[in-house]
Amino acid sequence: MKHLLVLATALLALSTSVASASAGPYAPVNRPGPRLSVPVAQLQSAVKCTPSAYGSHREVALFVPGTGVGPAEAFSWNWFRALDAIGHPYCSVTLPGSSVGDVQISAEYVVHAIRHTRAISRAKIAVIGHSQGGVSSRFALRFWPDTRAMVADHVGLAAVNHGSDQNDALYPQGNGPAFALQLKRSAAFVEAVNSRQETFAGIAYTSLSTAHDQFVTPAGTTDVRGPSDRVANISLQDVCPANKADHITIGTSDALAYALTLNAITRRGPANPADLPTSICAQETMPGADPTTVADDLAAFLKIATDRIAAAPLSAVEPAPKPYVFARR
């Protein structure tokens, strides 16, 4: 009997050790987030909302731009026009340095933007992030748990959720912009944002991807993992096989991505492609974007983004994860 007791105790200790190891060194998912390090005045000046967002009972959309652009370059010539036309309220957040620096700092701006947008509305909000904006907003939800109760939907448009092997190939030894090193598939940032669990109760997640993505590869790295009733990982080509959207157009001008996003934020749960008419596959340009100028608009978007990325300071190593990322801080 004594030997059995010793064996049982040893097995219990081993199972506890294995469970702790599988959880890793990262902070518990419900530990309160840290105080924001960015001055409040800077955070507040970065958030802009339509008058209709104040006191709205509708799901206000908070737009988070990707790398190298601000809300004006990313959303003013497409999404904002489209939502103005249908009277849907929205906000946007301008991220520091056009998101070419430490993504952890960008996430603080998103935290404040979520809190502000929820505070001025009368309902939970939707967070819509393109590319890096899709993962910086998930980082905010992961490490500032109070924001989760404020969000009904999270929509990622080609979000770099599990990094990209493009960044691994371009910067194998470091020496790249900070954000690029953080969005390698092997990055500590990527491991942290996906630590313990990737989705949270009460939020419906829609992650849209395209087979023609030239920056976020391989296929599937955009997907988020969670219960099927609140997570939809959708490839545009699975809905419309001939869809031509790439990494840029999925977040700026593609009609199907727009329709799925609107579906997500106006229904319970994540987007459901079955709700869309089959005629959506014949449309190329989303409402709000002008078909006669969309090529020039996209070219301007790409030039601004590439110029800012090219001018970004280089970092020899990935920015160190902040202390609050870990179980002990």
SSE topology sketch:
Elements lengths: L1 H22 L16 H6 L1 E3 L11 E4 L6 H5 L3 H8 L3 E4 L9 H18 L4 E6 L1 H12 L7 E7 L7 H6 L5 E2 H5 L5 H6 L10 E6 L21 E5 H4 L15 H11 L28 H17 L3 E2 L14
Helix pairs in contact: 5-6
General description of the model:
- This protein has helices at 2-23, 40-45, 71-75, 79-86, 103-120, 132-143, 165-170, 178-182, 188-193, 236-239, 255-265, 294-310; strands spanning 47-49, 61-64, 90-93, 125-130, 151-157, 176-177, 204-209, 231-235, 314-315.
- Helix 5 crosses helix 6.
- Helix 6 (132-143) links the parallel strand 4 (125-130) and strand 5.
- It is built from 12 helices and 9 strands.
- The strands form 2 sheets. It has a 7-stranded mixed sheet, with helices on both faces.
- The relative contact order is 0.14.
- With 329 residues, the chain is of the alpha/beta class.
- It has a single domain (42-322), classed as Rossmann fold (3-Layer(aba) Sandwich).
